[in-house]
Amino acid sequence: MILDHGAPIYEDLFGISWLDFNLSNVMMIIVTSAIVFIIAVIGSRKLQRKPSGFQNFMEWIVDFVRGMVSSTMDWRTGKQFLPLGLTLLFYIFIGNLLGIMFMVVYDGDLWWKSPTADPSITLTLAVMVVALTHYYGVKIKGGKGYVKDFFTPVPLLFPLKIIEEFANTLTLGMRLYGNIFAGEVLLTLLIGLMASGTLGFVGGIVPTLAWQGFKLFIAAIQAFIFVMLTMVYMSHKVSDDH
Amino acid sequence: MLDQALIIGASNGLLFGDMIIQLLTFIILLALITKFAWKPLMNVMQEREQHIASEIDQAEQSNQEAKRLMNEANDELKNTRQNAQQIIDDANETAKNQQAELIKAAKEEAARIKENARLEIEQERDKAIQALQTQVGSLSVQIASKVIEKELSETEQEKLINDYLDKVGEDNE
């Protein structure tokens, strides 16, 4: 059956027992990064004061992320997070899109998919983001201010604040993973239906197209939510009014 | 079927290898993309912002300058109009004065010429009268001499005397 495909796991690199790789993920990470890099570099080639074509689009994206940043924190503090937000937005959006167009199963293993449809990757991004919020929290407010934030407004909330950090990390990563993975599962099922016969093809083509369109929407929304929440968590750590 | 897929998806669990790859790749991507794309892009946008701000300032300055110049020009125009009016008025007045003077001079001239003419006429008349008088005198002398000449002829003299005598004789009777 179509859902029986596994993953190309490569276990125990250098004989280290916990160092396992999903080669599909590794490939998709590199493909996504390459595409993002190429788009960004093409978009910022031949920059002009009077923008045209692709530069307009890139500037629109920059303005969009800038809007996100300045809606959550002071722009003077938030300016340094603009490249992070832009890169996250592009990386997650492109990653989400890659699984919509097609999926490639080779030799029983699923090779081409969204990199964001794997919890290892989304959680890595989430942990990285939360770690960065802590880093910038200490850097901008100082160690004392950073620690003090855990005990305000009342010290009683300290345990909750600790839990909140883990909950934030987990929800940030799992939300993205869940949305994209569920989308891919449903897409796989629909394509399986279409492949099952003439009747299945006729019945399945409209839902498949509709679901692909909806996944496009989800891809954009999830990328936006991820970046937005990144900025919100960041502002909790670096802003004074919280 | 779906259960199986979910189990397959979840069964891989968290792969530390993937996580490390993802983290490293993302950091490298972030560094490269920031250097090659975002920084230049942001710089251009910032530069444009400054450019636009300075252009707006300049436009405002130019606008004020233009307004100032326009006011100046208006004032100048007003002054010029006043000057022109003044000049026209002056010219009119001068012309009127000149006209009056000319008329006065002409009248005087006319009066003088008339007086002269009158004097001349008088002179001419006097001259004519004088000439006439002398001519009358000479004529009367000529007439008298003619008459006398006539008397001097004998027969005439006689006849004249006789006539005269006759007349005298008739009167006496």
The percentage helix of chain B is over 70%
Roughly what percent helix of chain A? over 70%
Largest interface: A-B, 54 and 39 residues
Shape of chain A: globular
Report the sheet-strand fraction of chain B.
under 5%
- Number of helices in the DSSP assignment of chain A: 7
Number of domains of chain B: 1
**Which structural class best describes the helix and strand composition of chain B?**
mainly alpha
**Large-scale geometry of chain B:** rod-shaped
Report the order of strands and helices of chain A. Answer: EEHHHHEEHHH
- Helical stretch tally of chain B: 3
Largest sheet report of chain A: 2 strands, antiparallel
Low-pLDDT stretches of chain B are: 1-11
Low-confidence stretches of chain A: none
Main beta sheet strand tally, sense and closure of chain B: none
Mean pLDDT of chain B: 84
Order of helices and strands of chain B: HHH
By DSSP, the count of extended strands of chain B is: 0
Mean pLDDT reading of chain A: 84
Main sheet: strand order of chain A: 1-2
The count of strands of chain A amounts to 4
Subcellular location (chain B): Cell membrane; Endomembrane system
Pfam families (chain B): ATP-synt_B (PF00430)
Organism (chain B): Allobacillus salarius
InterPro entries (chain B): ATP_synth_B-like_membr_sf, ATP_synth_b/b'su_bac/chlpt, ATP_synth_F0_bsu_bac, ATP_synthase_B_chain
Annotation keywords:
heterodimer; A: two-stranded antiparallel sheet; globular; B: mainly alpha; 3 helices; 96% helix; disordered N terminus
